[in-house]
Amino acid sequence: MDLKELEKKLYKEIPLTKFMEIKLDKIEKNSLISSAAFKKNKNDKNTGFAGSLSTLVTISGWCACYLNTIKLGYEKSMIAIIKSDTAYKAAVTKDFYCETTLPTQEEINLFKKKLESKKSSSLRMKSQIIENGKICVKFEGIYIIKV
């Protein structure tokens, strides 16, 4: 599945992502890059709404889990976040992007092994929202995946 197909899936199954104008921009090196339009995700102080920022990092982590699950050949899965920690470091003041670190090969191998033996596994995902090279939001979440 390519990123545009996954974006369409998000818009259909999680309508909020379409309203927020979340985009799955690209995969580069070991990261999934996503973004959202500031104009749809600002608060009364004209800065990024914390709920929108949290949604973007959470959805981006979910997408990274989904892409890895599909890559392993599991077309049907249930992915849910079970724990997360979000730190807001600085205000976001314009269109913003999220960089989600993809699992290492070692992490994927363990993930695959658990899915094969238990039909369930988890991935720890890390994301950050960046504006002008500055980290504004740091996120870490644990996602459970059942096949």
UniProtKB/TrEMBL annotation:
Domain Thioesterase putative: 4-145
InterPro entries reported for this sequence: HotDog_dom_sf, YiiD_C
Record-linked Pfam families: YiiD_C
NCBIfam families attached to this UniProt entry: yiiD_Cterm
Protein name as catalogued: Thioesterase
Taxonomic source organism: Malaciobacter molluscorum LMG 25693
